[in-house]
Amino acid sequence: MVIFSGEIERIPAVPAPEKIKLRTSGVNLFYGTFQALRNISIEIPAQAITAIIGPSGCGKTSFLRLFNRMNDLIHNARVEGSVELDDMPIYDQNTDVVELRKRVGMVFQKPNPFPMSVFDNVAFGPRRHGKDNRKELEEIVERSLHRAALLDEVKDKIHESALSLSGGQQQRLCIARVLAVDPEVILMDEPCSALDPVATLKIEDLMRALSENYTIVIVTHNMQQAARVSDMAAFLMMADDKTGELVEYGPTNRVFTNPKDPRTESYITGRFG
Amino acid sequence: MPRAIYEKHLKSLHEDVLQLGDMVEKAINHSIEALKKRDLAMAKQIVEEDVNINNKRFDIEQRCIQLIATQQPMAKDLRAIIAILHIIVDLERMGDYAEGISRINILMGDEPLLKPLIDIPRMAQKAVEMLDRSLQAFIKEDVEEARRIPKEDDEVDALWNQVYRELIFFMIQDPRTISRATYLMWVAHNLERIADRATNICERVVFTATGKMEEIGASRY
After folding, report:
1. Is B5 an 8 Å CB contact of chain A?
2. Smallest CA–CA separation between A225 and chain B, in Å?
3. CATH number of the domain at B4-210, out of 3.30.70.100, 1.20.58.220, 3.30.1460.10, 3.40.50.300?
4. What is the pLDDT of residues A17-36, one digit of tens each?
5. What per-residue confidence (pLDDT) applies to A18?
6. What tens digit of pLDDT does each residue of B134-188 get?
7. Please, what are the averages of pLDDT over each run of 10 residues along chain A (273 residues)?
8. Residue range B46-73: average pLDDT?
9. How crowded is the C-beta side of B61, counted as CA atoms within 13 Å?
10. B78 lies within 8 A of chain A by CB
11. Predicted confidence (pLDDT) per residue in A90-103, tens digit
């Protein structure tokens, strides 16, 4: 009796090398004369979650804001070195910053829904980018809410004010709003710090699901969150002159069980910071 | 200092591992002393007191679990706690070997020893020394020492080999000695296992200090 006659499907033994989505090389960031970041070089893999951890004031948020040029909005901010998205320098003179921020979306610490309906919140970005076909917008809104794991909870109040949603729902709405413009990278700055534990775990599950299609960079104060959710972890710390430096960067499993640098060890075991 | 309470808990866990080690070392030494003297009352006491070793191990294990659940230890702290969870199992089992030696003693009843004990006490002495030093190495995170100790297991193995051959010789010469020789062989085998368990502890010392899991100096037996 022939039990198996087909050919065994060949699975490549070695996974394809990780694609690098974001790269910084020797980046220095200044606010006027104050240097906020020094000589940061890092490669952030695509379709993975990279967590930025470090004590308050070490420049985590400044670092995150490099990737969609949010620091441009701060008077006197100046960037040296290179920041690349898909190998393209984003601080190039010719970079279309609006297009960049469409590709690199951002979610903030406090949920910041606009004072309008759930639908209009999600449709806001696509409308700004010129989409006005009602049917197309409805599809985008539904798809974005679904991807943000919010559709089931809001489908009956899609035209009600977004401000009526709970904090956790508002934050997922903000994620849906980012997803609506079809970004490639999602930057998250302490996205769960204003949320309760259950809402936090929902966002974390959502991040894991989203990382299949998007590159996620998250700044978090919550070390357990970084350990739970991220694939890669970067530890930033202030030097004596208050300038942020990258102390250690590597796979999360390793950084949290066997960090190489004693400063990382002290920080993640809670002995300073 | 941040995390003062956490530090206190971690420190007291380390101290309790030393205390458990001390209880086990005493049990091993006493079991051999009782055998040498054929002191059955002492042997019975060692058997009865093994429950204290077991309870101490459960207590340490419980506290490790609580610390993991409530304090989210990371990095070296986490490795040390995981190492402790392994080490206390090894210690408890060493206590069982000492209990086993005492039970053999009791089994022998009022039969005299087949021969005066020379190599068996030497094995015990070496095994206890290895155990003691491995626990010190754990406390001091002394990787060099932890790599040195397992090499000395060869001494215990050589003694075990010698005891084994000698006892076989007795048995061949006079089959009436078989049961008494077998008892002693069990005793020596228990001691050989104790030394092996000490090398396990050394592996955990290396793991705690470096994060590397490696087998050091596998025993010949």
Report:
1. no
2. 11
3. 1.20.58.220
4. 679 999 999 999 999 999 99
5. 78
6. 999 999 999 999 999 999 999 999 999 999 999 999 999 999 999 999 999 999 9
7. 47 63 97 96 97 95 96 92 96 93 95 96 95 95 95 95 95 96 96 91 93 96 93 96 96 94 93 76
8. 96
9. 14
10. yes
11. 999 899 999 999 99
Is the CB of A264 inside 8 Å of chain B's CB atoms? Answer: yes
Cα(A141)–Cα(A137) distance, integer angstroms: 6
A268-271's contacts with Cβ under 8 Å and 24+ in sequence apart are: A268/A53, A268/A223, A268/A235, A268/B74, A268/B75, A269/B3, A269/B73, A269/B74, A269/B75, A269/B76, A269/B77, A270/B2, A270/B3, A270/B6, A270/B74, A271/B1, A271/B2, A271/B3
The total number of structural domains in chain A stands at 1
> Can you read off the two tokens belonging to residue A248?
């250690």
> B79 to chain A nearest CA, in Å?
7
ipTM: 0.76
Beta carbons of A265 and B6 less than 8 Å apart: no
Token pair 């089992």 in the structure block, residue: B93
